[in-house]
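[recover] target loaded
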């Protein structure tokens, strides 16, 4: 057989190629899932806008304003909030390329206190953490997260903690990341929608 440029091609069929997350970020997966929940009237969960204070705006044309300088008004809390079956839900989405643990430096102190306050007031609060290189996504409830913060002197949460106390969220077609089914299991109900 004649190969292009006389070079034999390597056989790549023996290696398994994963396409699960190609082009998708955790945030876009969650946004797609939230749109599904809203469209089907299952839950109303939204991405919170980051509060900014405008300082300078350039108006080259009447309808083409350009923000040239702005700053954050206040520290943001968590990424998403909303309602499900009468419950207040508040959560953050984080990604890491680390294979063995989730670095706590990815979460600010004011966010930790926010998680503590929401869980203390009986809201449903959690983290969705994607381990990119493992192609795994976990939901870790706020009280389990706070327990780790309060009882372990580590700068990260080991993957084994997510496996033991968290819930793996499988990829699906619709919704992309069905975290509401995990919340149903935690609430003691079966898929209520």
């Amino acid at each position: 057989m004649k190969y292009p440029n006389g070079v034999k091609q390597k056989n790549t069929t023996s290696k398994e190629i994963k396409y699960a997350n190609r082009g998708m970020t955790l945030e876009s997966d969650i946004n797609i899932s939230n749109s599904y929940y809203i469209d089907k009237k299952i839950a109303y969960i939204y991405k919170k806008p980051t509060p900014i204070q405008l300082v300078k705006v350039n108006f080259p044309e009447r309808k083409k304003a350009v923000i040239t300088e702005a700053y954050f008004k206040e520290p943001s809390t968590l990424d998403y909030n909303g309602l499900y079956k009468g419950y207040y839900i508040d959560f953050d989405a984080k990604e890491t390329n680390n294979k063995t643990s989730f670095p706590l430096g990815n979460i600010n102190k004011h966010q930790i206190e926010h998680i503590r306050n929401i869980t203390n007031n009986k809201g449903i609060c959690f983290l969705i953490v994607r381990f990119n290189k493992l192609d795994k996504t976990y939901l870790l409830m706020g009280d389990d997260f706070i327990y780790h913060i309060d009882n372990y002197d580590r700068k990260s949460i080991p993957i084994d903690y997510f496996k033991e106390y968290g819930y793996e969220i499988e990829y699906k077609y619709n919704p992309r990341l069905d975290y509401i089914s995990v919340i149903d299991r935690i609430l003691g109900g079966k898929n209520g929608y």
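[recover] notes: The chain has one domain: 26-49+76-187.
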